[in-house]
Amino acid sequence: MDKVQKRTYTILFFIIFLYICLLIKYTQFPITLFLGNSFKQNIDEIINVVPFINLHRSPINYILNIFMTVPFGIIFPFIKKVNSKEKILWSLLVPLVIEGLQLIQFILTSYSERIVDINDILMNTFGIWIGYYLYRVLVLFVENYSKINKDIKRSSLVNFIIHHNKR
């Protein structure tokens, strides 16, 4: 990897780091603590393990859960070369970690402002898959367009995309 490609990789790594920080901010905070036994929830109030139940109640929430994870699917393959099995693993792991941390928060505090929802896991997974698909479309577009327009190869991002995909 030459100097320009390393710089582009570093920028993309910073972008995914920033994205993960924002993902944590919006999926894990605020964490509310009550002193003593002033307020406790039952676990069945904050967990939904039945897929596709109550989708009609908050469709915007499910759409946002999809859009929230699309950037991961687009950017992550630039940071780490992944095969098909790893794509499936990462697309399940990220949503499971998000919802798992929300469950741990509830277990530790007996209160959660969030619902641990199987539908969120499904929508997040779908969002990552959409991102992977958009990544592939982007790479194919850049590769095909760079064959037509030789001047575009001078761009460090285009050069990175072309060489990264050949690894």
Describe the structure in your own words.
The protein is built from 6 helices and 2 strands. It has a two-stranded parallel sheet. The mean pLDDT is 87. The chain is elongated and about 65 Å long. Helix content is 71%, strand content 2%. The chain starts with a helix and ends with a helix. Helix 1 (3-28) crosses helix 6, helix 3 crosses helix 5 and helix 4 packs antiparallel against helix 5. It is mainly α and 167 residues long.
- Please indicate the percent range of residues in DSSP E strands (runs of 2 or more): under 5%
For the biggest β-sheet, the strand order reads 1-2
Strand count, sense and barrel status of the largest sheet are:
2 strands, parallel
Give average pLDDT, whole number.
Answer: 87
Number of helices: 6
Would you count the extended β strands for me?
2
Q: Helical amount among residues, as a percent range?
A: over 70%
Structural class by SSE content: mainly alpha
The helix-strand sequence is HHEHHEHH
Sum up the structure in keywords:
167 residues, mainly alpha, 2 strands
List the helices and strands and how they pair.
Blueprint: H1 3-28, H2 43-46, E1 47-48, H3 59-79, H4 84-109, E2 116-117, H5 118-148, H6 156-166
Parallel strand pairs: 1-2
